[in-house]
Each structure stands twice: as structure tokens, then as C-alpha cells.
Amino acid sequence: MRGLAALPFAVLASFGFAAQVAAQNIEPVADPLEQAIAEGPLLPSEVLRSSALTFPSILESFEREAAARSDQLSADGAFDLILKAEAYDRVTGTFSGGFAEVGASQPLRPLGAEVYGSYRISDGRFPIYENFYNTNQAGELKVGALFSLLRDRRIDKRRFAIEDTRIAASQASLDVLLVQLKVQHDALKAYWYWLAAGREIGVYEELLEIAQARTIGLTREVRAGAKPRIALTENEQNVIRRKTLLTEAQRNFTNASNSLSYFLRDSAGRMITPTREQLPDTSTLEALPDMQSLLSQEVSDVMDNRPELQNFRLAMERATNKIELRRNDLQPKLEVGVELSRDFGAVGDGGSTFDSTDTVVGVKFTVPLQRREARGRLQRAEAELREMELREQRVSDQIEVELGNILTNLNASLDLADLAGQEVEQASAMVAAERKRFSLGAGDFFLVNLREESAADAQVRAIRADLKGRLAAASYSAATMDLDELGLN
């Protein structure tokens, strides 16, 4: 400190100024996820990566899984080793006896057993009613064990809790997968809606540009007297109608961009609204899947792997364990205890009766005569299991029907997309032919506009047919848990 104080004020000030300049020259570290999204066209893989890493619902499911794992650790604590110690001494009075004892007990899972051991040492004289505190001069060592032979022999609340929390943790892991599948499915749908809305804007912009360009030519011809003024009015009407279509398409794109920003986030979870400049060239996107490759997958394999059904199987396992616990409550309680104790050293104030090895065996039997509470709990647990089995059957049938509908929709979407492509080709050919006839003076201005708008409608139908195919493919990927397609690998 004295070295710093000795520095001239000007030198310190120059150091401070240099530090400020250096701080101003430091460029902020770019968010890697946001930078990846901003660079180049926005692809579905980038959206899926963003949602998988940052979407709140997925992060929430991970926290629920962590909480379930914590419950599992807490349940294991029922079998923790327990250490206890006790001591007391008489300060005044007729008797001078005091003792100190330290012991440990360890619950065990087999037979609901517990083993324990302790060491106790005493000194001085005790009244006759506290004679059991006496030990020889080197103290007393005691070990023992308790066993359950009927109730709590195979299962009890502690072992049930361990198994129940283990299954609950597995269910929490499945819940993570379920949330991921839903979020990624929704993210894909939002992306394809956004892409289709952007493509529709391009169609209506081109349609409007044609009408606006035609306005210039018609204006020139009307001034020259080659065309009646009504032709210009009709074209202006077309311009207004096409502007309306474009405005509606722009509104739809803005809404789709806002919806996509719900899934497109930076590393801090802040939403990123995509722009039209990020629309990719459709030629760079993967084609819709081949139906033959999809139909080759066995439906039974898909059903076995669905997390909803795995969750039901785990839930029924938990219910079965609960029934076993309730049946355990119906049994009488029969406990057997074995204890061995030995005093060491010279005989103490308790006399020679303490100078021996004592082995004690005890039995304890209890049973409620009516057991109505236990029977009621058992009946409830059995009813809950039957309810769960019926619900599992309903959900299984529902998933099978939904999967069949997805395949049907995907097959129809592929056919419709092919037909829409053919319609676009034919409509474009009709537009080219009608424009040629019109330029030669044989066509009609009304028919030219009609052909152009019909071609634009065909393009929009093709875009929407492709959208339906993309949505059906996304639903199929979610239904079959294709983790690669959903960006979860």
C-alpha cells in the first residue's frame, strides 16, 4: 500500500485513463445461439436447437426431474445410520451415580430388521430403581437386532417409499421426453407456418408488380388513344384487389413470425422475432418423406416406445406396490428381538450380578381385531389400479387411432402437393398463352387478369398443400419419437 501511495498522482491518473480506454475497446461477447440464428437463412434445425436448449417448458421439466431425484435421495435416508449419545451425573443428593452411553443403530431392508450396538459406563451409586444403569468399571458393551416376521417382513413404509420414489423419478424422466416431443412438434409447426406465410407474400408481390407494371403501359396506350380509359380503371381495380391480398399475406406473416419467436430464443431465453430476410430458399429444404419408408415401421414398435404408455406401466407398478403395502397392513405384527450384553473390568457398585454375559430373546405380537382401516385402504388401492388399467387401454387405443390418422393425412398431403404442382404448371402455361394472345390483340384484358390470379391461387394452394404435408410429417415424427427429426439428439 505504501508503494502505491508513493506514486505520483499523474501516473495513477494515466493508469486510470488507460483502463477506461481499454474497457471501451472491449467488444461485447456475442450470444452464440443468437449469432447462429442471425447468420444466413433460418433453417428448421436451428429453430429446433433453440427450442430444445432454451424453451421454458423443457427447462421446467428438467427441474421437476431433479426434484423427483431429490425425493429418491430423501427416501433412501430412512436407512441412514443413526448415532446417539446420552449422559447424566448427579451433582448433589444422597446418591452419586452417573453414566455415559454412546450407541448406533442401522435399519436394514431384509425382514424390516434393525441392528444396534451401544457402549455404556457408569460410576457412583444409584438408587434401587435405577440399578440397571450400573456397569462394571470398564463399562458394558451391548449389541442386538430386531426382525419382523409377519407385517413389515417383505415391505413397509420405508421400503415402499424408496421404490415409489425410484419409479416416480423414472416417470419424471418420461415427462421430460413428453414435454420435449410436444415443444419440438409445436416449434416445427410454427416454423412451417412462418415459411408458408413468407412464400405467400412472394406470390402476391409478384402478382401486384405485374398489375403495377401494366398500369404504366396502359396509361401510355390510353393517352395515345389505343385503349379506352375503362381499361385503365379496370387495371387500377385489380391493383387495389392485389394490394389487399398482399396486405393480408403480410399480416399473416407478421403473426407467424411472432408465433415462431415463442420458440426461437437466445441463450438467455429472450425471444427472437425472425425477419423475412431469413426465409430460406425452398430448394435447400429436405423433400417430404416417402410414404413407403414410413409404412415400413411397425405400429406395435411405436406403441411400445410411446412415453405415455411407458408412464402408465410405471404408474401401474406404483399402484401394485401400494396394494402390497396395504395388504401388509392387514397382517398382524410379530417382532423378534435378540440382544447380547457384556460388562468388562472389575465389578462395580452394582455388584457381581452385572459381571456376566446376558443373552435376551423377546417376542412382540400385536393385531387390530377388526382391521377396517386397512381393508378400506386396500380396496381403494385395488380400485385405483383397475381405473388405471382402463385408462391405459383408452389412451393406447387413442394413440393408435391418431397414428393411423397421421399416416392418412400425410399420404393425402403428398398426393395433394403433387396435384397442386401440376395445377401450377398448367396455370402458368395458361397465363403465358393468354398474355401472348393479348399482346397480339386477340385476347381479352379480363381473361389475362383472370389467368394471372388463377395462377397465383394455384401457387398459394401448392404452398398450402406443401405446408399440410410438412405439418403431417412433423406430427409423424412426434408420434414415432423420431428424435433426429425433432432435434433432440
TrEMBL record:
Keywords annotated in UniProt: Coiled coil, Signal
Gene Ontology terms for molecular function: efflux transmembrane transporter activity
Similarity remark: Belongs to the outer membrane factor (OMF) (TC 1.B.17) family.
Signal among keywords: yes
Protein name: TolC family protein
Coiled-coil regions listed in the entry: 371-398
Stretch forming the signal peptide: 1-18
Domain of life: Bacteria
A Pfam family this chain is assigned to: OEP
Origin species: Erythrobacter insulae
